[in-house]
Structure prediction request, 407 residues.
Amino acid sequence: MIVAGLQDGVWPNLRARGSLLGANRLDGDGPGAGDGTADARAEVLHDELRTFLKALSTARSAVLLTAVESDDEQPSPFVAGIEPTPAPDGGWHSLRSLVASLRRRAVRAAADGDERDLSQAAAALRRLAAAGVPGAATGEWAGLAPISTTERLDAVEAVHASPSSLQSLEDCEVAWVIDRVAGSTGGQAAGFGTIVHEAVEQHDATDPLELEQAIGARFGELAHESSWEAARQRGDIAPMTATIADYFQRLRGLGWTVETADREARFSVELEGGATLNGSIDWLEHAPGGTVRVVDLKTGKRKPDEHAELGNLQLRAYQLAIALGGIAGVPPQAATEARLFLPRLERREKAIDAEPFEGVRERFEAHLAEAVAAMGGADFRAVPAEHCFERFAHGQCAIHVLPEVTE
Ligand code: SF4
Prediction:
């Protein structure tokens, strides 16, 4: 028994039935009665359900229901009321899951050397492919296509390394190159960070109210997934701006200065081999004795990953840029400190200072040379690890986190 086209709005169709003049409404339309629409719809629903059950009751051995689920159409609620018979290998009740099930079966049969099962699954896939079902033809299976090129993606360009990309390259070269070539979706965490950075750059950072207003004025630009998420992030603004303002006030009390030109200080320095290191430093702090401190503002709630020996690679790149004379007004030989400032870090001390640069400069330069070679290469290494599961990491890369269709 096949019941085809079980679409919402088609079966059940709740449009009230009746005669042209609505004679069927006379019954319920006495004084004080409502318009009877709800009752009429309930009656129609009962009729539709009765017809559906009657159709099912004529089945002798099996019932096949078909429906389409798409952006425009939904299956009838009657479909949800039927408990499907599970398929022997876990169930396929759509073409998509049927294809996945057959692919899984074919791959397992091939691994087990079961020729008979393999040829059955392959024959079924061939039929589906001939009918144009997506994913059935092996030509569409990801990973089976030949490598289209072994050339560098941007063979004509020099490598431009950015300090912020060094750690993501360290974490996973594949995620890095995808992010670079395809761009990341960013997300509201990155958007929030941009707004906070701009507020600190363009406003009086010692004034918590001014910062709060500047961030609040642009908060509506962020696309939050839910209102509770927006409310939670908005609630973080006041404590965060109070922490930032307190930091700058204490800095001023200690005699340190931050010049306007030292906020978002841009640099571009040439490295050996023709590559360039480009970026901008959130701000530079000048001590009364001449020491310069590079500060990177992080608006996340946790400490970013760092290299086991070199510490935070982004800070190291900033220090190297200064040492190579990349920042106007800062002599290359200046003693540089480096600090991460994390106003939302869930612990009392919000600043994390890096170990002295001089001790690691040589190793960092060697590391940077390797990173530049990797960025300019044609082979990229995937490193599946915990970072793959971080919601906002790597432009939300999930290549090796989502199970293969065949598993
Ligand atoms: S899932 Fe993980 S290992 Fe795979 S490309 Fe993305 S970040 Fe790299």
The chain has eleven helices and eight strands.
